[in-house]
Structures are given as C-alpha cells and as structure tokens.
Amino acid sequence: MPRSCTNNRRRKPSSSIPQWFWLPAALGVVALIVPFIGMFTAVAWPELPDLLTTEAATDALGLSLRTATLSTVLALVLGVPIAHLLAQPASSRGAGWVQQFFYVVITLPMVLPPVVAGLALLTTLGKRTPLGGLLHQWGIDIAFTTVAVVVAQTFVAMPFVIISLTGALRTRGMEYERTARDLGASRSRIFWQITLPLTWPAVASGAALTLARALGEFGATLTFAGSLQGTTRTLPLEIYLQREVDTNLALALAVVLLAVAMVVIAITTVVVTQTPVADHTKSSDDSSLTQDQALLALARVAAVEPSTASISVSALVNERAVNLAAEIPTGAVTAIIGPNGAGKSTLLNVLGGALNYRGEIGLPPQLTDLRVAWLHQRALLFPHLSVADNVAFPLLCQTKSAGTWFRWSRTRRQIRERAIAQLKIIGCDHLANRRPHQLSGGQAQRIAIARALMIDPDLVLLDEPLAAIDSSVAWSLRVLLKQQLRSRGCTAVIVTHDLADVRSLADQILVMESGQVIAAGSLEELMTRPPSPFTTEFFGLTTTSTGKIYRPEDVRVYTAEEVADRELASLSEDTGQCLRMQATVVDYPPLEFSNTALVRTGEGATLLVSRNAYTAGSLRPGERIYIEVPYFDSVTAANA
C-alpha cells in the first residue's frame, strides 16, 4: 500500500535559531549562574539579620541608596538631553563626524577601568588642581566628600542612559515628532507629551542600568572619594574592607547589594514589557463604499466656484535642484502629479514651511496668517493617546495652560467634547476611547483626517494619504475628504500617483517634471493636450507610432460582417479627428486580468483597444477587424 503523502511532510521549524546554539548558550548560563549559587551557599543565613543591623552595614547601605538614587537622577537630567542631541540626523557629513566623536567621548567612562575614571576626576577636581583649587577658594570641596561619591557614580553610570536612549531614538525615528510639529506643537510640548512617553521604556531601562551601576561602583569612588564610614564608604567599599575581617558580614552585604540590583532590574523589565498588543479582533471599516456608491456620492458634492484668488509660490531649492513657480487657487483642490524625483514633495514642504528656500509665497488679502494642516500616507496617530485625545491634540497645542487648574481642566474638557463632535461627523465617535493599535487602517486614516481638520486650516497638504489603504476603503475616504474640504472651504494640495484621486478630488492639476511645474490645468484640458509622455501614461492614454494619442476605451471596433454590411471596406484614412484602418487581433490576457486587447494594424503598428461586452466576441486572436481611433493632439503639438 503506498505511503500517504502526508507522512512525508516535514514539520516547519519553530525557530530560526541553529540547533548548535544550545551548547554555548547553556555553558554561558552556567558560567553566569554558578558563581551566585556558590555565594548563596556560603552566606550565614541564620546570622543575616544581626549582620545587617550593625552600624557599619546600615551606614554603608544607607549611603549607597542615597548617593545612587541621586546619581541616577543627575544622569537622567544630564543624559536625556545629550541622547536627544546625539540622535538627531546630522545636517552634513562634517557634523556627522563631530556627532560620532562626541558619542565616543561621552560613552568612554563606561568602558574605562574604574580606577582610571577616579584618577581622572581626582586630577581635575582635587584641591591641588587648578579647577579644584579655585572651587576650594570659594569654599567648595568635592574630593573625599559625599559629593565626590555622587560625582564618581554619575560619571561612570550616565553613559548607560545615553546609549540606551540614543539607540532607541535612532531606531524609532522622528516621524511622530514631525507629525506633532505639523499639528502646531511647541518643542517642549513635543518632548513632554510625545517623545518622552514613546521612549519611556528606553529611559526606564537606562535608569535601571544606571542605578545598578551606581550601586556597584567601587574603583572610581575609592580613588576620588576615599573610604570614610558614613561619608564616602559605600556598600561595595564596605564589602571590600570586610572580606578580610568578617567574611560573613561581607557576604551578607553582597547579598543585599545583589537583591537591590535584581529588584530594580526586575521592576524595570516589567514596566518596559507592558506595551500595547495589537487587537486582532478589531472591526473592519463599516463605512466602506463600493466604487459605484462612492462615485454617486462624489457627484453630489457641491462643485467649487472658480476663484480669482490664489496662493502664489516662487521658490528655489538649490540642494534639490527644484525651481518652483505655481498658482494654487484658494478654496479648491490642486493635485500634483509627476514622476519620482520631480519635486512634488518639495513643493509640499515649501508650502508647509518645512524646508528652507529662496523666494516667497504670496497670500491673497483674505489670508493674513496661513494655518496649515498635514495629512500623510501613514496615519501616524500617537500610540499612547486615545482616539479622542489624538483628535484633540492640535487644539490643545494652541491653548495656553495659564489660569487656575479648574479653568485649564474645563478648557481641556471642552476641547475633548469638540473632538468627539468631530469624530461623530466622520462616523467614528464610537472609537473615541480606543487606542490606535485597536483600529483598522481605514479607521486610523479617518481619525487622521479629523485630527488634521480640527484646527480649521486654511491650507491642507495631503501627501499620498490613500496610497496605503485598500481600494474599497480608499473610495470611502475620497468621499469623506471631498465632503470635509468642500464644507470647510479649505484650499488643499494633494500629491498622488493614483488617477482615481485626481479624477475624484482635483479641481486643478499641476504637472511637475525635473523640478519644475511644466503644466497646469483641469483634467479635461490635460487629457486633451497631455504635456509629456508621463502624463499620457498617467491618464491611461496610448500613443501610436505616428504620435497620435488616444484612449483604448474610445476605440470603436468593427467586425468583418459589419464592414461588409456598412460598406466600410475602405477604412484606412486619417480624418483629422480619428484614424480608420484594418487590424488583426494579436493576443489578449484573460478577461479577469485585463480589459484590453493587443491588435496590429496593416501598417504594422501595435495598438491597445478596450475589451467590453460589445467587442469581447470580436477580439479573438487572429480575428480580422476594422478600428476607428479617435485621437488627441500629438505630444509634439502639445509641447509646442
């Protein structure tokens, strides 16, 4: 009997880790754990309470806890700003080298022998040194005092905070900070309300390592602060002195030091691992529309009245080789299209004030101060805030916290109520108390739209906002965007690579190529006279070998029988509006994958024609047909 094929299936490995890793990993764990086991077995546990209540033990333990805590606070106060400065992207290659140099120097104490670190402090702050002598004249003595203990611990432990936080900031990026800045947040607000909450795990981890390192500091403290009971003799120093005099007391103090360090690290580990887990049972978008429903809804949106006022842009960005000259009509939606690298995002950044340029932006008289809102491809909702708090964030950035606590609390409550009202308008008020990780992609982008419009902007900048959204959800969002922009009378500029965005949203189109705006006009104008091969392809047009531009769906197909019935056998002419010619169907993909067929004319030209219910039966490979191709102006004529 043949063996079942299922018996030959191999189970997928549960891990990508090589099997041979187990041996060195086990040896490493043994090497780390066995010494602690040996120490625990040597401790005189029955005598532990008496040993730890001696004067020397309590003095050393109290001094270590006080100085290590203060050192950790100082390391956070000094190290967090340093980490943020080191994590900033370098503006130039030279600045990058300087940044790396300071990173090496600042983290050097972590790898130095502790005695060397203590010697460096002593030769800098000792009484016989220039700086130490000057401080001594002012009545400030640091060496061989409790202050010296704190200085030594901070010096050797602060790099742990810097390395932990710098790595986290570089890995996470600064997208949320840029989003908060676009929403009007000040730099201080961004740090306290966005950066610090999002990097809290790294800060907590760095603080725990700093505290543990400060508690265990020995060499630098002994060299710089000495060993005076109750003044500079910390727990590690007491252990070192007692190991020859009273081994039981030294072991008891070592157990206490180890226990404190383990508790600190364990608590921090629990805090760090309490991160939100994505809710895989989240609901899908219940407001999705089919394309037909969306088109009907878009048709009902009131058309914009032609505006004579506009925002004029004249800007030169040398580092990007972009020279911009454009007019953005107010109260309308302007779409920017063009190939990659054409300067579309540069124009958006210039309008948003996020890029330095030479030139000016001219505002119409009714716009004395331009309020700008951004909407990016990713929703970038702040993960530590609820949906309602995300929507309320832009208004909170504009509200000063002056006045009594009651007044400020009432203002926050009013802003939250307004945010929930905005959520109700877009049909998402039931999501007010959810966190971003509990939303679907379409829901998150709806919330981002509500947040961007919360400040009643004069100008809305949309950077491919629907590119990462499913097509059915994207149509719903197009309807929502157009309704919201029309109802508020906003001026909007959208960068997109999707013709559906242009057809459904844009009142005007700017075509950019090679860092310049090469054409501007309505969809009908640019489709009739496409200014470049890119726009021809973007609008779904096709170019014949003679430079005629046509839409495949406009081509009329005549079968051989129709030609005979209508006496159209002489179809081979250019009427000035269309081409008439004989053709042969070459091939076509299956109907479920494409709605076009490939045909070859009698002159050898290859063209695309549309397959639909009318022509599907006629467009079989090898079929002789006649075609009528209505065309537009040629690319050459359009450029002229």
Could you explain how this protein is built, in words?
With 640 residues, the chain is an alpha+beta fold. It is 49% helix and 14% strand. It has 24 helices and 17 strands. The strands form 4 sheets. A 6-stranded mixed β-sheet has the order 5-6-7-3-8-9, with helices on both faces. Strands 12, 13, 14, 15, 16 and 17 form a 6-stranded antiparallel β-sheet that branches. Helix 7 runs antiparallel to helix 11 (219-225). The longest helix has 33 residues, at 55-87. The radius of gyration is 36 Å and the shape is elongated. Mean pLDDT is 83; it is low at 1-7, 277-283 and 635-640.
How is this fold's topology laid out?
Blueprint: H1 22-42, H2 48-52, H3 55-87, H4 93-107, H5 114-125, H6 130-137, H7 146-172, H8 175-182, H9 187-198, H10 200-216, H11 219-225, H12 235-245, H13 247-273, H14 291-300, E1 310-317, E2 322-329, E3 333-337, H15 344-352, E4 358-362, E5 372-375, H16 387-398, H17 405-425, H18 441-452, E6 459-463, H19 471-488, E7 491-495, H20 499-505, E8 508-513, E9 516-521, H21 523-528, H22 533-538, E10 542-543, E11 549-550, E12 556-559, H23 560-566, E13 573-574, E14 578-587, E15 596-601, E16 606-610, E17 624-630, H24 635-639
Helix pairs in contact: 3-7, 3-10, 3-12, 5-11, 7-10, 7-11, 8-9, 10-13, 12-13, 14-19, 16-17, 16-18, 18-19
